[in-house]
Amino acid sequence: MRNLLNRLERKLYRYTIPPFMRYLVFAMLGVFVLDFFAAMSSAYSFNPINLTGYLTLNIGRVLRGEVWRLVTWLIVPPAGTSTIWALLSLFFYYSIGTALENRWGVRRFLIYYVIGALANIIGGFVAYFIAGYAIIPNTYLYFSLFFAFAALYPDMTFMLYIIPVKAKWLALIDAVYFLTALLWGGVNGRCAAIASLVNVALFFGQDLIDLCKREYHHFKRRQQFRR
Length: 227
Fold this sequence. Notes:
This protein has helices spanning 2-11, 21-41, 59-63, 69-72, 83-104, 106-131, 139-152, 167-184, 186-195, 198-226; strands at 57-58, 135-136, 157-160, 163-166. By secondary structure, it is mainly α. The strands form 2 sheets. It has a two-stranded antiparallel ribbon. Strands 3-4 form a two-stranded antiparallel ribbon. Helix 5 (83-104) crosses helix 7 (139-152). The relative contact order is 0.11.
């Protein structure tokens, strides 16, 4: 799999690809601002405007011809009622994405991102044909970026409120979020969570297998030494 990813990355060198994570985050910020002012202007209207509703990955709408949703769902801003939370989430996306672009290079990051996006779209169609209804959020896709970040920068420290926490421990919280979706997220949540782990498995699955093998061999040697 690594050789396949490397060949794909080399093929992209014929194209000039600028860093794009900043543009995604700025586009999400633009949608958030437009939605905010639209909500204010339509506060006293019986037909309030919801721009995000026209951008989400609603598979039923896609099948009825709204094919732009296959792309625009990537710039839907974080859900929530708090403006501060939305802005902090966008800053988080920007920080993680640009750090991965700097570490991997834009082409490898693009491959990681596109694999996750395509897997989510496929997962959306699977959820639709199972449940007859599917709206796939982009939250799991962007949270999957943090798994890659934590794998590359495990000892990077973040301030969780006033508590310093390393990235590898925050990745466990991220994993709990995914596990919650897998257990209780319904068809949509399960499909989105599984799809958002495809890129993680392709990029880091072999490393995880090798780590488990090393730990197992270390365990066996310790057991033999004790005997």
